[in-house]
What does this fold into?
Amino acid sequence: MNPRLVVDPVTRIEGHLRIEAEVKDGRIVDAWSAGTMVRGIEIILRDRDPRDAWAFTERVCGVCTTVHALASVRAVEDALGIAIPPNAELIRNLMFCAQYLQDHVVHFYHLHALDWVDLVSALKADPAETSRIAQNISPWPKSSPQYFRDLQKRLAAFVEGGQLGIFARGYWGHPAYKLPPEVNLIGVAHYLEALEWQKEIVKVHTIFGGKNPHPNYLVGGAPCSLNIDEANAINAERLAYVGRLFEEARRFVDQVYLPDLLAVAPYYLEWAEIGGGVTNYLCYGDLPTNGFADVAQFKLPRGAVLDRDLTRVHPIDPHDPDGVREAVSHSWYRYTGGDDQGLNPWWGETTFNYTGPRPPYENLNVGGKYSWLKTPRWKGRAMEVGPLARMLVGYAAGHAEIREAVTRTLAALKAPPAALFSTLGRTAARGIETQLIARWAKEFSDQLLANIRNGDSRTFTKEKWEPSTWPAETRGVGAAEAPRGALAHWIVIKSGRIGNYQLVVPTTWNGSPRDAYGQRSPYEASLIGTPVHDPKQPLEILRTVHSFDPCIACAVHLYDDRGEPLPEANGIPVA
Ligand code: NFE
Ligand code: MG
It folds into this structure.
């Protein structure tokens, strides 16, 4: 028998992730996380026009669509010293908020909920009792006994027809599912409603960026014109539409997402003691309100929490060459100066070196290289990034709104702050954050309207647009908070072209393999101690891994049309 439990592919995520775990006496004692798809974006970018980089990097991923474009234009603006007009900042913030609202809601319902909600158990629910519970937790109107009865009939026809489709291989009936049938039925109802709703909020991207996924960006501003009275511009009618989309989003978050989170969590409070993982948390911060240089005015604060000490926030400087470094000791890459040295991304290298087993194989060679993700560290430490990191850093920084939202949620769950350092804490933090984002979106859209009314319709600057005005060599960092966590792009511009370009993305931080010192990254660390009731149905592994919301496409990239890693990429055979 395989000595390790293997989950490959992990589903309900973005990309290709493999988890191997050693289980002893019903608990995980060691774990390995591997991205099984190779990246190439950093190679594709070499020698291109830096003003085009956003269009390539944005296509790393269609899930966190837009954040890589944002990090990219910021990197170029940082390198060239370009300050964007206030309206461009607001438009970018609004696109950011739309992205978070969609991404977090979709994660909760479509990627994570079925780890906690037993779809098949919902068939046993009493529709009248379901309605009573739904009306007790929220004023959301779709809550009549008839509504739930109809839904249950549809679900029953689906299950009896043997056509479970994407739900066919679920672990339905697993004893770790604890919700009463009625709460399961509410979960199924909102799964379907969220699917409908999420296609609305992304229209914000089509208004400001022309399309979704992958809306347009612009070095120096935002690629749209503002004019209240002009039919082809962002006019009063479109701005009112944006306002309505955000209002509906706020209602959905306040009346569906958060009540569901608070209704489900009490059945799973043991998960507030499972899945903590590493003890350090990092945020670059985002949602600037006075230019990206004025970090103190960010809505999402920058900083690090170390050793879970919430009394202190440590400063983070993305420009510090000794801050973020990436090594490839256990990654299928090669560094010219040795794989164990951490390289700051400005000097980063992307050279493939596949030494892994050929399929079919039983196990990864975890003593050697075993992932396409590199291993980033901040001053040598493994850092968790994401909603939990943002809420912890905001809380520790004394950010009033974050503190209030975190405290209120903990009080509702009767849980101490230490409960945050867990699988449940990660999932709760994402919900808390979504609620804050929904409020801030309104502030940004009001501010944009006020600016236009006051006669400011500028959305971009042409300053430093011409490469003839650029220095012969310059470097920059574009830092951002993607939904899954701290994201930054490092760029070196030489003679008007990209000399080097490196992305260090949230899932690289969280899902990376061990470093040269054997320190585990967040996924691997968080799985230790996780119970596994039945190795054939590792539901518990999914709970913890999904709580991070993995996106492996962001973290690695590129396959050829037969599914083989590109053999001659970078001029070096990969095997
Ligand atoms: Ni493809 Fe991504 C986010 C980024 S993840 S989803 O959020 O950046 O690592
Ligand atoms: Mg990279």
